[in-house]
Write a structure and sequence with these properties.
This protein has a domain of 64 residues: Winged helix-like DNA-binding domain superfamily/Winged helix DNA-binding domain (Arc Repressor Mutant, subunit A, Orthogonal Bundle). The chain is mostly helical and 92 residues long. It starts with 23 loop residues before the first helix and ends in a 5-residue tail after the last strand. The protein has a two-stranded antiparallel ribbon with strand order 1-2. Strand 1 and strand 2 form a beta hairpin. One of its GO terms (molecular function) is DNA-binding transcription factor activity. Pfam families: GntR. It comes from Nguyenibacter vanlangensis.
Length: 92
């Protein structure tokens, strides 16, 4: 089932990486998982493009791409070619 009213957070979501340790891509995933659990990143939310998030955080686009790939691997995110990366709707 596709949610037609995806929430667009491309210009809003900015993960808080302060006080986190370890590789930056894992810091992004940890912040993302926390924000999903708290409801700050609701199911269906559209995340910023890899390059935009990298620019916001002062990181390489490779780092944010790796974070998003890890999010897909952990079933937190889903990517749609040409549309963006979205917070995955949990299975019932």
């Amino acid at each position: 089932m596709r949610n037609k009213e995806n929430i667009d957070l491309r210009a809003i979501w900015h993960p808080d990486l302060s006080g986190r340790r370890g590789p930056k891509y894992l810091q992004i995933i940890a912040a993302m998982a926390e924000d999903i659990a708290s409801g700050d990143l609701p199911a269906g939310a559209c995340l910023p493009p890899h390059r935009v998030l990298a620019w916001q955080l002062g990181l390489s686009p490779n780092t944010t791409s790796r974070a998003y790939a890890e999010g897909v691997k952990r079933a937190l995110l889903r990517g749609e070619v040409g549309r963006g990366t979205f917070v995955r709707v949990p299975s019932p």
